[in-house]
Predict the 3D structure of the following.
Amino acid sequence: MSTAATTIQLEVSSPQAAEAQPLLDALSEQLGTRFGSDGRASFTEWQTGDSRYIFLLARLEGEAVGCGAVRPLTDTVGEVKRMFAKYSRQGIGEAVLQQLETEASQAGYTELWLETREANTEACRFYLKNGYQRRPNYGPYIGRDHSACFGKLLTSSDAAEFLSHD
């Protein structure tokens, strides 16, 4: 599948949406097979109707092909969860992550954090490539050597424009 001739459409949705379930199930199966834990336990509470909980679905030609979420850790820090692209190297993950950052900024977050497995080298490279930096493990990941935590400061386009002229 090539995205050259098609555009990835992104929409705010819910992890309970029927189209989200096969994606979340595929992610959990992949994580369980590769790392022995499916990640579902860290994504149990979800506040529908709370704008600080953000879930995106990505579509290519109408097919749901990716997802990602942000949930609050503090008033200003959101946590990226359940990032998944059905097809690799098609720009799906990057499109989802960039839109999550935009939505998170609009919801009042100034920073995003996330955790992935140290052994998930593809994910670690992906986040570094997208401007995330390694940070100390936080919350339930403190003391877990297999966890790799990342963070990124969110800036408005005005602030980014101002900083680029310094």
Summary: The radius of gyration is 16 Å. The helical segments are 20-35, 92-106, 121-129, 157-164. The longest strand covers residues 63-72.
